[in-house]
């Protein structure tokens, strides 16, 4: 009987060992073996299991509340090379984690191009900034930069942002319990809608905001277009958003064709429709709509989250709060009595508040990584990034590098005193030619809100120990349930 049992167990054991060997080597067979001799110059690392690759450990680390453990485990296993192979988001990838390796990937447009997940590309549009080739990207950036980050544009937007910040804070202080993050996302969405669509945005803002929430949940999801999956619902939301934007563009073109004097105040969509390159070429409807889709999504999500965390950190550190408040009060004291509100000059004088925001963006790192793909075989520090492989720039590893930022988990705005990081040592907006084109506008939104908050309000979190989730973005699970209290002035 024992011999019979052994004869049964041995084949099963051997079969399991063969299956284990196959599972561990399928990715090598598919992705590395075809490289021939070049496979021996790949970075150290592990492509993991078929299809899943390294995504299981990535998702476990982020969903367990210990996002740094993902890269820490790789570094512990393979050393501090700053470059590792992995299978991420269904693609063979090379992860870079140091300023030097990141610089090679982000600033060499001849060898690398955008490599965002397929779901992101389809939802944001193939003619948006994240997808188009380098030369077309430069052209689109030239055509739109003045309308977004130019001094005249920022001065024009500042008045409206100031008004919205004042009215929003006053409203929230009377509402009692609120989800602070949800209200901030509405605040930043209202701003970006006004910038792009002017007064037209008021009528459709609520519906568009809901659609954008659905869209954002699908941006980093698996591209599975079936009911029940985030990408499917995001695609439906995108269709509705495109229809709204197309109707606005059609109406503007109709008014222009009929020489209708339709408004004195111009908005971003006017700027996009008027923009011409050196050859007189203008943007087509699809380019305009894809640009709007991207800006409206990025322009309120990142700003809303960053503003929430900056407010939380300030409230958690009374000495930092007071120092930032003193700076704002000094700006008010120096203001001429006839000046109605904030100016760009005053914002430029908020040196300490700027450090608070920079430190918040470092500590939160809204986007954990940037996606590129190698256009040709690329040698980085003696390792090869094969043509067609993804290159992932791991912002979190750099922003939490103790050699650059001592005690990196500490919120310390003063670390920025007399410290100017290199371009790839601090990348809240990316780096290189594809640096986020709305970076100045985003920081201005955050600054204006915090200016008024510091002067007149305080935050009372109702669940200060609420767990934090890190996907798709870092936020408290309860969306920061809180009360906003207006400070009585003596």
Model description:
- By secondary structure, this protein is an alpha+beta fold.
- The protein is built from 17 helices and 12 strands.
- The chain has helices spanning 2-32, 55-63, 68-78, 99-107, 118-124, 134-149, 151-173, 180-197, 201-219, 230-257, 268-274, 285-316, 318-334, 344-348, 351-364, 395-399, 439-456; strands at 83-88, 91-96, 112-114, 178-179, 369-374, 378-380, 383-385, 390-394, 457-461, 468-469, 475-476, 481-486.
- The strands form 4 sheets. The chain has a 5-stranded mixed sheet.
- A hairpin with a 2-residue loop joins strand 1 (83-88) and strand 2 (91-96).
- Helix 9 packs antiparallel against helix 10 and helix 13 (318-334) runs antiparallel to helix 15 (351-364).
- It starts with a helix and ends with a strand.
- Heme binds at residue 436.
- Its cofactor is heme.
- Pfam families: p450.
Helix share, percent: 40-55%
- Main beta sheet strand tally, sense and closure: 5 strands, mixed
Level-1 CATH class name: Mainly Alpha
Determine the mean pLDDT: 87
């Amino acid at each position: 009987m024992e011999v019979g049992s052994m004869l049964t167990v041995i084949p099963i054991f051997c079969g399991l060992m063969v299956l284990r060997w196959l599972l561990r080597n399928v990715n090598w067979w598919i992705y590395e073996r075809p490289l021939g001799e070049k496979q021996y110059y790949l970075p150290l690392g592990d492509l993991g299991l078929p299809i899943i690759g390294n995504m299981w450990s990535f998702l476990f680390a982020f969903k367990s509340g210990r996002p740094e453990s993902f890269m820490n485990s790789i570094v512990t296993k393979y050393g501090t090379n700053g470059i590792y192979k992995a299978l991420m988001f269904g693609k063979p990838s090379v992860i870079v984690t140091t300023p030097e390796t990141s610089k090679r990937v982000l600033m060499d447009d001849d060898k690398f191009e955008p490599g965002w997940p397929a779901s992101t590309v389809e939802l944001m549009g193939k003619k948006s900034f994240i997808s188009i080739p380098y030369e077309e990207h430069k052209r689109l950036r030239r055509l739109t930069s003045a309308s977004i980050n130019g001094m005249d544009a920022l001065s024009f937007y500042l008045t409206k942002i100031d008004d919205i910040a004042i009215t929003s804070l006053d409203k929230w202080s009377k509402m009692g319990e609120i989800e602070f993050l949800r209200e901030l996302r509405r605040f930043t969405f209202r701003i970006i809608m006004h910038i792009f669509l002017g007064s037209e945005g008021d009528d459709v803002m609520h519906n568009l905001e809901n659609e954008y929430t659905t869209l954002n949940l699908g941006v980093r999801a698996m591209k599975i277009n079936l009911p029940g999956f985030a990408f499917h619902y995001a695609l439906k939301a995108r269709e509705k958003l495109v229809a709204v934007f197309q109707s606005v563009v059609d109406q503007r073109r109709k008014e222009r064709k009929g020489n209708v004097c339709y408004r004195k105040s111009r908005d971003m969509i006017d700027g996009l429709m008027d923009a011409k390159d050196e050859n007189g070429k203008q943007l087509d409807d699809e380019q305009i709509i894809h640009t709007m889709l991207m800006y409206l999504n990025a322009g309120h999500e990142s700003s809303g989250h960053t503003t929430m965390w900056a407010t939380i950190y300030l409230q958690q550190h009374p000495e930092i709060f007071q120092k930032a408040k003193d700076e704002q009060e000094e700006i008010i004291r120096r203001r001429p009595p006839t000046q109605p509100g904030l100016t760009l000059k005053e914002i430029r004088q908020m040196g300490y508040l700027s450090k608070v925001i920079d430190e918040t963006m470092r500590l939160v790192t809204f986007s954990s990584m940037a996606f590129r793909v190698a256009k040709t075989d690329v040698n980085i520090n003696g390792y090869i990034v094969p043509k067609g492989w993804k290159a992932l720039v791991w912002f979190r590893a750099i922003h939490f590098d103790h050699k650059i930022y001592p005690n990196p988990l500490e919120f310390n705005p003063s670390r920025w005193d007399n410290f100017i990081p290199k371009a790839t040592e601090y990348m809240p907006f990316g780096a290189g030619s594809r640096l986020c084109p709305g970076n100045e506008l985003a920081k201005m939104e955050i600054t204006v809100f915090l200016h008024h908050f510091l002067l007149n309000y305080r935050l009372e979190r109702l669940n200060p120990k609420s767990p934090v989730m890190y996907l798709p973005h870092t936020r408290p699970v309860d969306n920061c349930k809180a009360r906003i209290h207006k400070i009585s002035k003596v």
